[in-house]
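Encode chain A's predicted structure.
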Amino acid sequence: MLDYDTEAARYDATRGGTPRADAAADAVLRLVPPSARTLLDIGCGTGLVTERIALGRPGLRVFGADAAYGMARLARQRVGAVALADVRTLPLATGTVDAVSAVWLLHLLRGDGVVREVVAEAARVLRPGGVFVATVDKDAGHDVGSDIDAVLAPYLSARPADAADLVTGYARHVGLEPAGDAGFAGHGQGRSPRRTAGAVLRGDYASRLTLPGTAATRLAEQLLALPDPDTPRADPVYRLLAFRARG
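Encoded structure for chain A:
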């Protein structure tokens, strides 16, 4: 897992920057009703997407929350109202916001039951009729029919932490009903074999790959043996699901 405190300074530049953030924010706003007046972006990171959401809809009050101090500090410079908080226990009263967004968050939550807790907490802080919008199947968004995909295929886990069916089940259990979906391009995030090998060795794909023993080293070697190891393959397409609170 990355140390997000130390990663904060270079995070945006290595992950598509403003073009990717604009695409994510536009997709989130397509799923947030025009009547919404407040939105909380959980796991907001550096606040780049959070800021773009705010800029994309003047009049929508946008807040952020992140558990990493380095990330929250940068986000506060962009958004202003950002809490340093575990997103499983948000510092908000029940039923106080119109929308909650979670972009590129759920796939990182690998402990037993953690995604379920986060979905439940999002539901708790939503007003009746409010919406929860989250990326799902994040790592699968990188499946673009490339040679990298073929190498990864034998190691894929059956159900990553942010699998759409799992998230939908957690949402239904806490009174959130499906309310739409959207896709957007991950500009500048096409994987190269070398970049993917490094991510495998760091454990970045732990929610999607099963790598017992020395399998991570073996997989990295297979990736580095591919042609053009520094050439990115096609950009991914990410998926968002929206869920509406009853009431």
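The radius of gyration is 18 Å.
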